[in-house]
Amino acid sequence: MHIKKSMKMADVIQMNYMLIPVIHRFGIELGFGDKTVDQVCEENKVDLNFFLQLVNAYHDQDYFPKEELQSIPVREIIAYLKMTHASYLNNTVTDIEQKIKSLELEGNEDKKYIALIRNFFEGYKSELTEHIMREEDVVFPYVLAVDEIIKSEQFTDKNKKVFESFSIEEYEEEHDDVEEKLMDLRTIMIKYVAPPANTNLYHSIIQDLFRLEEDLNYHSRIEDKVLIPKIILMEKSIKNLF
C-alpha cells in the first residue's frame, strides 16, 4: 500500500514506524494530530512530491521512482542528504556507541570481546565520517555550483572555479562502499562472538546495525541513481552552453 497525500500522517507512522527518522529529517516533529500528509507538509514548507517519493521508497523496497525523483530540484535533494548525514552522525552512530559502552561498563568476562567490537565500530565511524565530510565539503558544493550555472546560464568567478576543479564522474568512480565494514562487524557479532550476559542489549546493537545498513543502502541509491545521473546531464548541458 502506497502512502498518499490524503492519509493522516499519524496513520503513516502506525503503518511503518521505521519512517519516524525519515520524516524527522524533513524537520517534521511528532504531535501533528489528525492532520493529513498534505497538511503537515504544507505547514512545514516541505515539498509534498519529494516527501511522498522518499517515504514510499523507504516503505516499499520495490518502489523506486527514479524519474519522479529526477524532477526534484537539486537543492531539495542536497538538503535532504545533509539532514540524513546529520542524523547518522548525531543520532544513529552515537546511540550505537553508547550501547557498546554500556556493555563494556558491565565489566564481565566478555569485556575483551566487547572492546574488539568497540574498536571495530570506531574504525567504521571514522570511515563513515570521512565519507560524509568529503561529500559535504567537496561534492555538494560542486553540485550546487552546477545547479547555479544551469539556472543563471552564466559563469561567475566562484562557480567557474568550483566547476573546473571537480567532476561528478570522479565522485562516481571513488564512491566508497561505506556499508561493507558495517556488514563485517555485524557478521562478526552474529557468527564469531558469544553473546555477553546482557543479551538484550547485544541483540539491540545488532538490530541497530541492520537498520543503519538498510538506511545507508537507500541513501546510496538516492546518490547513485538520482543525484549522479542528474548532475552528469547538467554537466553536459553546461559544456554545450559554453
Tell me what you see in this structure:
The mean pLDDT is 88. The chain contains eleven helices and no strands. The chain is 75% helix and 0% strand. Helix 6 runs antiparallel to helix 11 and helix 7 packs across helix 8.
Measured on Cα atoms, how large is the radius of gyration? 21 Å
Distance between the termini: 47 Å
Determine the oligomeric state from the structure. Answer: single chain
- Number of H- or I-type helical stretches: 11
Contiguous runs where pLDDT drops below 50 for at least 5 residues: none
Describe the biggest sheet?
A: none
Helix/strand structural class = mainly alpha
Q: Topology of this structure?
A:
Blueprint: H1 9-15, H2 20-24, H3 37-43, H4 48-59, H5 66-70, H6 74-105, H7 111-152, H8 157-164, H9 168-174, H10 179-191, H11 199-241
